[in-house]
Amino acid sequence: MTFAPTFLARGLCAALMLLASPWANALVFAVNEGVTYRVPLEEVRGRYAVIAADLSKLLKQPVTIEPVGDYNLLRRGLQSKAYDIAMIHPAHVSIQAIKGSGYKLVAVTKGYQKYTASFLVSADSTMSSLADLKGRKLGAPDEDSITSWMVRATLRDAKIEPGQIAITYTRYQDAVPFFVENKLTQSGATAANALVKAWQAKGGKILAQSKSVPIKHILASPNLGADQVEKIRDYLIGLDGSDEGKKKLEPTQYTGFEKYDEAKMLELGAWLGL
To answer: Which residues, in sequence order, are CB contacts of 26 under 8 Å at separation 6+?
Structure first.
């Protein structure tokens, strides 16, 4: 009978020690690498480990990496402000966080500011504009992918109502050209440059392209102070300015980060329908 109080006391002491530990105030760095090509969680942690360690020293708080593959889980975390820093692949999710939860745009990833959806058609297609897609079938990636958000915005610009076109969504962008090649759809939309180049190399045509949208954003929670946000921004933007910084970027496979106008990002959000 004497064990229960002792055990309870020990548990209480452990909890108090944890609360006193600096890890109780650890900042959470959420990382999302997109919906089409999922990266193993441990690999994601490894990619950003050095950057997280640097941010820990810079902010004088531990920074823990939390890979998040599912967009709805990512949204819930952003809505509850569970993430202090977030690397977000899809523009629509980060724009929702900026508009709805007060997150700040820290930086965008170099080389990813011109993400564009291309509408593929076969070499023998007689279509000459997006208007010709009315009454036809279109293949596109996952319905909640940034590519498909851009596709729907582009179709709205072309005055094509949802009921005037049948969109077949697929988990993998690689399947989009297959749809067109095998006459399952009359057109296919993809933002994967490799697929577009391969399509054109085989004689396929590009019917139209969407506006460009930056992807892979770094956001900061409204819970962080302005000085903390600036420290994070300065650190990330400065990484590619030295050989040491470039070495730290190598695991991420990105060349660097740069500033982007948050107001301009929100304008793109309005175009996307957010």
So the answer is: 61, 62, 63, 64
